[in-house]
Amino acid sequence: MKIYLDIFFAVNFLMNLLVLEIMNIFLKKRLVISKKSIAAAALGAFFAGVVVVSGIRNRLAIFVILYVLVSCLMIRIAFGKTTVKGMAGYIGGYYLSGIFTAGFLMFLKGMAGIKNISIIFLLLAAILILFFSKKLFLLRGHEISGRQNVFPVKISYNGKSVTGTGFLDTGNQLYEPVSREGVTIVQYELFAKMLSDKEQAEFSRAMHEMEPELFGKLLLRYIPFHSIGKDNDYLLGVRADDLEIRIRDKETVHTGKVWLGIYNRYLSSDGGYEMLLHSKIFGK
Q1: What angle do CA 180, 183, 186 make, to 5 degrees?
Q2: Are 149 and 253 in contact (CB under 8 A)?
Q3: Percentage helix, strand, coil, to 5, in the chain?
Q4: Burial of residue 234 (number of CB atoms within 10 Å: 0-12, 13-18, 19+)
Q5: What mean pLDDT, rounded, does the chain reach?
Q6: Which SS3 state, helix, strand or coil, does residue 203 take?
Q7: DSSP label of 241
Q8: 221-227 and 230-240 as β-strands: parallel, antiparallel, unpaired?
């Protein structure tokens, strides 16, 4: 029985981890097997084991309630705080991805020549492919970092700071509509490192629900911009205290107060940078 449970846990854990990483691809996140994904996958596998051992699935109402709660907790661990609507989308995406992944793996096992290969081996192979894909993306990111238009940047905001990589985008002509000052676009994942849990929840809400009371409460501006597939969209605009841009080994430029547009996706598919610096960031 113990061996069966160990195998059952391993299969569920690997399947959960694979599905979470596949979701990261569709969400345009980096291919990173993070501690959060591992913790969420382990939680799901543990719950599956408890269901088998305890017989909870025979009590339909309790099983469904626990199933929903565990699913929400897994999403919260893996992807952070979100709105109710966002959580529903994540859960729907998780189970759709799981169905297609399981179906594809069963298809592979049914093919001639590999039908005797264990499901654990197939899951491990798929996860390793994602892992080495990440390595390739990071290598490309290091190549990009040596280019002339990529700089280390430290953002200072509300008494805190975070360091990332900025790409000087000559095509970034985005301006804050009231002050007409240039806007540097920053990934939310990087910016969120300077926020408390409460602030992260408020920003997540503001990104999904354009409500007037959040405008003043968070000192935000909604900055119109055009994105792929959308004629009209907006970024959350935040007034940073300073950007410190290192343009050479011992030479830095300080911008002073500057507008940041917070973008809730990855700007670089290979992880080479997390910011699109405004074309006039150096005053040219």
Answers
A1: 160
A2: no
A3: 50, 20, 25
A4: middle
A5: 77
A6: helix
A7: S
A8: antiparallel
Length of the chain: 284
> How far, in Å, are 79, 85, 92, 220, 266 from residue 153 at the CA level?
25, 34, 37, 22, 17
Sign of CA dihedral 224, 186, 193, 127: positive
Q: Is 69 exposed, middle or buried (0-12, 13-18, 19+ CB in 10 A)?
A: exposed
pLDDT over 70 (residue 283): no
Question: If residue 8 lies in a helix (H) or strand (E), which one and from where to where?
Answer: helix 2-26
pLDDT class of 117 with cuts at 50, 70, 90: low
* Backbone φ and ψ of 47, nearest 5°: -60, -40
- Taking residue 189's Cβ as centre, other Cβ atoms within 10 Å add up to 17
* Beta-strand runs (E) in 109-267: 150-157, 160-168, 183-187, 221-227, 230-240, 242-248, 251-254, 258-263
Rounded Cα–Cα distance for residues 116 and 143 (Å) = 42
- What span, in angstroms and rounded, lies between the C-alpha atoms of 61 and 172? 53
**Assessment of whether the complete model's pTM goes beyond 0.85:** no
Phi, psi dihedral angles at 194 (to 5 degrees): -95, 0
Q: How far apart, in whole angstroms, are the C-alpha atoms of residue 65 and residue 132?
A: 38
Gyration radius of the chain over CA positions? 22
